[in-house]
Structures are given as C-alpha cells and as structure tokens.
Design a protein that fits this description.
Blueprint lengths: L3 H15 L2 H20 L4 H25 L4 H26 L10 H17 L9 H29 L4 H26 L6 H23 L10 H18 L16 H17 L3 H39 L10 H14 L4 E7 L2 H8 L1 H18 L5 E6 L2 E6 L4 H15 L3 E3 L2 E3 L3 E7 L7 H18 L3 E3 L9 H15 L3 E10 L5 E12 L3 E3 L1 H10 L3 H21 L5 E6 L1 H4 L4 H10 L8 E6 L7 H13 L3 E7 L7 H5 L4 E4 L1 H4 L6 H16 L3 E5 L4 H10 L3 E3 L9 H12 L22
Parallel strand pairs: 6-7, 9-11, 11-12, 12-13, 13-14, 14-15, 15-16
Antiparallel strand pairs: 1-3, 1-6, 2-3, 4-5, 8-9, 8-16, 9-10
C-alpha cells in the first residue's frame, strides 16, 4: 500500500487534473447545445441530461478530494458537497420532466433547490475564522451595510421582476426567492468580510461573484414572460454553471493563515450610503407585495443607524477627557509616548523642521532597588522638572515610559542640538535630595533629525533610540544618529529574515579548512566553518551574517546544524578511511545554553565514529560568566570523549589559572599574534613562550591564520604542532575536501621541499 504522503501527493495530482474539467465540460456542452438548436430549430433537453451529470460529478469530485486533503475543513466542504448534489439532483429531475413534456412551474424537483440553499447557508456560516471578535459598533456597522445592500437588491431586483413577470401567488414567491437568496448570500459574504472572519480576500471575491452569477441566472428566469414553462437559454445555463464552478473553486482553495494587511474599520461614507439607501426604500413606499421584501431590511437598517449614532454621540462626549488622559503621563504630568507620536506625525505632515532627543537615565534601576519605587518616582518627577528648565519654552518635553524621556525641538542644526543635549545632561547632574540621600542623576541622550523621507514617527523614534544606545556604549553622554553604527537597519533586518528562511530551506553549508602537522606537512585535522549559499548572492562568509544571526536569536539553530552536519561528514570520512579529527566552534551562549550539548550528544550517538576525533573549540570568554559551571560542562564533554580546544588564545582577559584546572587538550593561537611573527620580535617571543607553556601542560598548539611562507617557517622552527591558513589551503565545501586531502597525501613528483611547491594540489576556493 502507498504511504500516506504518497497518497496525499496522488490526490493533489488528481485535483490539479480535475480542476479545469468542469469549465471545459460546461463550454463543450453549451456549444453542442447551441449547434443542435441551430440545426434542428428546437431545444434538446437530452443533451443537457447528458452534460449536467458529468459537470456536477466533476464539481462533487473536486469537493470530495478537497475534503480528503483538508481534514480541518472537511465538515464544511461536505456540507457544500451535499448542497450542490441536491441542486444537481433537482436540476436532473426538472430537465427529465421537460424531456417527458412536464414543463409547468413549479416542478416536483423544486424542493431540492430549496434544500440546496440551506446547505450553502451552512457552508458560509461554517467556513470562517471564528477567532475574530467584534465590538457592538462593529456589529451595528455590519447590520447597516448588509441591510442597505438588501434594500438596494430589493429595489433593483424585486421591483423589476414584479413588474415584468406574469406570475402570481406561489409561483411568484418561488421565482423571487431564488435571486433574493442568491443576493442575500452574497451579502452574507460581504458581512463576513466586514467582520474580518475571512482573511482570504480572493476566496471571498470568488464566492461573492459565484452568488452574483446565480442571482443573474435566477433573475433572468424570473423575468421571462414564459417562466412557468422552464424555458431556459444557454445564457442561463452558462451563468448557473459559472456560479457553481466559482463556488467550488473558492471552497477548494488552501486555507490561508497569513494576515497580509492590517484590518480596517468601515468608512463613514459607506455607512452613510447604506443609511440613505434604506431611507430611500422607506420613502418610495412600495406596494404591499414589494413591501414584504423592502421594508424589513430598511427598518432594520435605520434602527441600526440610530444605534450607531447613539454610540458615536457617547464616544464624542468622552473624547475630550479621554484624549487628554491618553496623552498625559500619570506620574510626571508630562505628555506621554502617544503625544510624542502625534507631534512627530503632525510635524512630518507639515514638513516642519524637527528633531528628536531620547534620554535614558543611567543607574535608575539601582535607585529603585535600593530606595524603593516611591523614591524612584520622586527621581523621575524631578528629572522631568529639570529637563523642562534646561530647554527653551518652545521645546516639548515628554516621558515615554520607565526612565525614558523625549524632547522635540523645532530645529535641525546639529551643533545646536548637541549643545542642548549637553546642557540637559549638565542640568540633570545637579544633586537632588531623595529620602535624605543626595543623588546626582546622569543619562545618555540620542539625537536624530526628522528627514523628508520619513513616512511616520516610528522611524524617527527608532533612530533616536539607536543613537541613545550609541551614546551609552561610547560613554560620550550624547550622540547623533550614525547610520554606519545602526545594527537594526532595514537591510540588516531583511538579512536576518532571509537567513531564517535559509536555515529552513537548507541553504546553510559546512565547509572545511585543513590543519597540517607542522613536522610532516600532512593533513591532521579539519576545522568546520559555516557558509551560507544565498539563492541570489552566492556563497556568503560568516563574517557577513553571524552578527545578524546573533541579533535575531538564530545562533542556537546554526550551531546545532553545523555540529550535526560536521559529525555526519566525520562519520562518512571515517568510513572511507580518512581518519581526521574535526574541530567545531562553539560560542559561549551556546556552550552554556540548555540545548546545544544534548543535541550534540544525540548526533554523536547516531553515528559510529571515535568521539576523540571530535574537537570542540571554545573561546576564553566562555569562562568569565560562570567559571565553575563552565568547568562542569567541559568535564562532561570529556566524559563523552570530546576533546577541548581554547580558540583565539591570547586575545582574552581571563586568568591562566583555567589552563591548570580545565580539561583542555589544545590551544589555538589567534591570527592576530601569528601575523608577521617572522618580522616582529615581540610577537615571536609571545608565540614562542605560548608554545613552551602548551607543551609543558601536555597540550597541542595550533597556529591559525598563516598567510605567508616566512611566518610558516618561523612557526615550524619554534616547534608549533599544527598550522592552518590561506597560505596552505582555503576552506572547501564537503564535495571537494575528501578528494583534496587524498591528492595532498599522495606522493608528489617534485623536488621542491616546500609544501607549496609546484605540483601541490592547492584549491583556491571561495572564502
């Protein structure tokens, strides 16, 4: 038996084949019927009796396939299937009666049509997103729109049918029910769109268009003077067929879960227009027959308009007080974030010169923690007073929340802005007395100028926030926004999102750079390095995307992926007889985090490789946060057989004490110390002493970043154990590394003793 995924794929394939067939069958049937009518001069119901079963069978098949593919919507799809099956059966009964000469309206199968509409109502009510909720005014808006639409349909549809049709009594009632039901179902779809319970707009348009086509076909039938004889034309059949085909095509669409736009409320012109239509329906004063169709929706609409006006009046009475409260900070009585956004929006609209300063207090948390929140509130209030005194009366001061304040000035002079910022800081630094303790507040201010290209105040606030953090990190107190230091620009945000998709889509690769035994120049190990094969930019170096990965919280996933792939490749090389250890880099957050090591152990357990062939490279700053916890983790790694290497050795600030207490097997000297080791005496002395230290502690020592033959020769002379760098070999993708290692290790016919002599199979791959 095929697996579930295979069956699913087959059903999808069948669905794709069946999708256009109803339209083709309908078109062929109409053409054949028209040709037969032209040749014989008479309508031939037998052709329809042949085409209709095929047409409706294909529609029902599409619904059945969709019900199988989408279990969560199976009930609603089956309800629609039953409704269309009832309509198809009724159509077959009516056309069979025509073929036998029974042509009077209503025919025995008419009740099947009525049942089908009940099913379509059930489908529309069930095929919605019930998570959305609406307040009272939203429901009134919906009633007004739907009621006005119903009034318009009654005036434009019922009145002409009533005047043009020769039917009366039950026949007229039935003739009017169908187009009215079609229009009301279209109105239901409109109402569901207004309630925002349908997020797939294309599907809503298709359903609405389907019911409009059915309404046109049913209206055409009711308008015929000879409607009592079921005298249908090809146009009516085309409209009915098109309507049902659109309904089915919309129903089988995959469910959409992504909201592509922010929902909007109904505009005032739409509500006013609906109310005017209802008023017109009441003013026309239709006769008794039309009143049954026109007056109820008109009265309901006008009642909803009255309720909506009452709510609007209530809201207007509260608006002034609410506006003032919503734009004022409760504690400092300064304007709040909402007021700042309003000022920025108005200034950008008027294109007025404007700048924004954001101030963040330094050490405010310590005040709260030491003296309590009451003292903290006092400090915030006094800071607001000081800021108000430090700026011109035209400047606007606000509190954004917490210990953040904002100042909006009507100038773009950067020198004047920086002078004002430093004046604010000097004013803040004056001591204040809080609970008997003298406090001198300090802060950091970020400054930005509003640009003509700014679409809203949010971007201005973001730039000022970035500048404020630049000021805090630099220790300067105040800083102008610098785009070169903006780590949160739109392009970098886009890079992070592309990386997130790249990890999911398998665009991340693990490349390998060989490590060489310094004595024999044979390959003794590999370092696993991550690369991103971008679909449009090609292979991207980690220097370009790792900072974005760190900011976006993707380093954990990247580290897991690299470790798992490196272990799989290690197992594959081991199976081919290449016994080379592989080194994996691990940053402190991942090493000390809760997920990386369990995933590493799981990957190791799934492969049959010697665990001592795996080297985990950690940096010195891994030991700074929690030395004892780090030591426990490294001991646990050693218990699993994994070797430990200290990466970037010589660039950290930790004590050498950890070399004695931690289970470390390898030191890796950073490229900064290796560069120009042949020509710089101080670098040579540092590297030589580090080599002696490592050997004394029974550790391997590796030099990375070897870029020239002079440095290589100096390192070999000093007794380095292993070397790696672009002078020897660049990082290579896994498809090349095995072949490269075999060619390097093979005997070479050359008299040049240098490892880079002629004939060396060097591969200058992309970085």
């Amino acid at each position: 038996m095929p697996r579930p995924t295979e069956r699913h794929s087959r059903v999808v394939g069948v669905q794709a084949i069946v999708a256009p067939l109803p339209w083709i069958v309908m078109g062929v049937g109409l053409v054949v019927n028209q040709v037969a009518q032209s040749v014989t001069g008479q309508k031939s119901p037998s052709i329809l009796l042949t085409v209709l079963p095929i047409f409706f069978s294909l529609l029902l098949l599409r619904l059945a396939l969709a019900a199988y593919l989408h279990p969560s919507r199976r009930t609603t799809l089956l309800v629609l299937l039953a409704a269309i099956a009832s309509w198809a059966l009724g159509s077959g009964v009516v056309n069979a009666a025509r073929d036998e000469g029974v042509t009077q309206f209503p025919a025995p199968g008419e009740w099947l049509f009525l049942i089908s509409y009940l099913g379509m109502v059930g489908y529309l009510l069930g095929d919605v997103d019930r998570r959305q909720q609406r307040p009272a005014r939203g429901w009134l808006d919906i009633v007004i729109i739907c009621g006005g639409t119903a009034c318009l349909a009654s005036l434009l549809l019922v009145a002409p049918i009533r005047l043009a049709s020769h039917q009366e009594g039950v026949s007229l009632l039935l003739a009017l029910i169908y187009p009215l039901a079609d229009m009301m179902l279209a109105v239901v779809v409109l109402g569901q769109g207004l309630m925002q319970v349908r997020i797939d707009r294309a599907k809503s348009w298709m359903i609405g268009a389907g019911f409009v086509l059915l309404a046109c076909a049913d209206s055409g039938f009711a308008l015929q003077a000879s409607a009592s004889t079921y005298d249908f034309g090809n146009l009516s059949y085309a409209l009915w067929g098109g309507g049902f085909s659109l309904l089915v095509a919309a129903a089988v669409r995959p469910q959409q879960s992504m909201i592509k736009s922010i929902p909007r409320t109904v505009g005032t012109p739409v509500l006013v227009g609906a109310g005017l239509i209802a008023l017109a329906a009441l003013t026309i004063r239709p006769d008794d027959t039309l009143a049954y169709y026109t007056l109820p929706p008109a009265v309901l609409t006008m009642g909803s308009v009255a309720g909506r006006m009452a709510l609007a009046l209530r809201d207007a009475n509260r608006a002034n007080d609410a506006f003032a409260l919503s734009h004022t900070d409760d504690l400092t009585k300064l304007p709040n974030r909402r007021a700042v956004r309003t000022w920025l929006s108005d200034g950008l609209t008027d294109r007025a010169p404007m700048s924004l300063m954001l101030l963040d207090l330094d050490g405010f948390k310590e005040v709260n923690d030491s003296l309590g929140h009451r003292a903290g509130d006092t400090v915030l209030t006094l800071v607001g007073v000081r800021m108000r005194e430090a700026v011109d009366p035209q400047a606007r001061v606000a509190r954004l929340g917490g210990d953040e304040f904002a100042i909006i000035l009507e100038t773009t002079d950067e020198i004047e802005l920086m002078e004002t910022a430093h004046e604010v800081l000097r004013e803040l630094a004056k001591p204040i007395m809080v609970d008997g303790i003298e406090i001198s507040p300090s802060g950091s201010i970020g400054v930005t100028v509003a640009l003509a290209s700014d679409a809203d105040g949010g971007e201005v606030l973001r730039r000022a926030d970035v500048a404020m953090y630049q000021a805090k990190n630099s220790g300067l107190g105040a800083a102008l926004y610098d785009s070169q230091l903006d780590e949160f620009s739109r392009s970098r945000l886009q890079l992070a999102e592309e990386l997130r998709r790249g990890i999911t889509d398998g665009q991340i690769e693990v490349w390998y750079q060989p490590q060489f035994d310094a004595a024999t120049m044979q390959v003794c190990g590999l370092e696993a390095l991550v690369r991103w094969r971008h679909p449009t930019q090609g292979v991207i170096s980690p220097v370009s995307f790792l900072p974005a990965a760190r900011r976006a919280g993707l380093m954990g996933r990247l580290s897991d992926l690299v470790a798992q792939q490196a272990i799989k490749d290690l197992a594959a090389r081991h199976a081919e007889g290449l016994e080379l250890r592989v080194a994996i880099n691990c940053a402190p957050p991942e090493l000390l985090g809760p997920t990386f090591l369990p995933h590493l152990y799981e990957a190791m357990s799934e492969t049959d490789v010697p665990t001592d062939q795996l080297v985990l490279e950690v940096t010195e700053d891994s030991f700074l946060a929690d030395p004892q916890y780090t030591r426990d983790i490294l001991l646990e790694l050693r218990s699993h057989g994994v070797q430990i290497a200290i990466d970037d050795y010589g660039t950290g600030f930790s004590s050498l004490n950890y070399l004695r207490n931690l289970p470390v097997q390898e030191l890796k000297i950073d490229r900064v110390l290796i560069a120009n080791v042949a020509g710089d005496d101080r670098s040579r002395m540092i590297v030589a002493s580090t080599i002696q230290l490592a050997h004394a502690l029974d550790m391997r020592i590796v030099a990375e970043g070897v870029e020239n033959s002079a440095d290589l020769a100096a390192l070999v002379a000093m007794g380095i154990d292993s070397v790696q760098g672009y002078h020897l070999a660049r990082p290579m993708p896994p498809s090349q590394i095995n072949r490269w290692v075999r060619e390097w290790s093979a005997p070479r016919e050359t008299s040049d003793p240098s490892p880079l002599g002629e004939g060396t199979p060097m591969s200058l791959n992309e970085e």
